[in-house]
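Intended use. Records like the one below are meant for learning the mapping from a protein sequence to its folded structure. Do not use them to infer anything beyond what is encoded.
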Amino acid sequence: MTKSFNSDLMQGTLDMLILNVLHSDSLHGWGIAQRIHVLSSDILKVEEGSLYPSLYRMERKGLIKASWGISELNRRAKFYKVTKTGKKYYESEREKWIQLAGATAAVLGHSF
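Structure written out for the chain above:
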């Protein structure tokens, strides 16, 4: 059985995960959390208390943009989309995160 981890991730890590899932699609908060959970094979669980502060911070920085829409459950929801600035930031930081993950795995004696 695989353990699920709450989003006790470093701030920058959660931001990168959010930018990654928003890179190709506009999603509301619950959809973002679910996509991260699914893409991580049910290992990462992003809680509201971590997700929304990260979304608001990234919106203030101009990395994402929010607009109101209707969810798949026919409810009013705020949908988030990556801005041009956010895409540039994501592209410039993505490779750094991949290298960091590989270096960390190497120090721990594991490679992927």
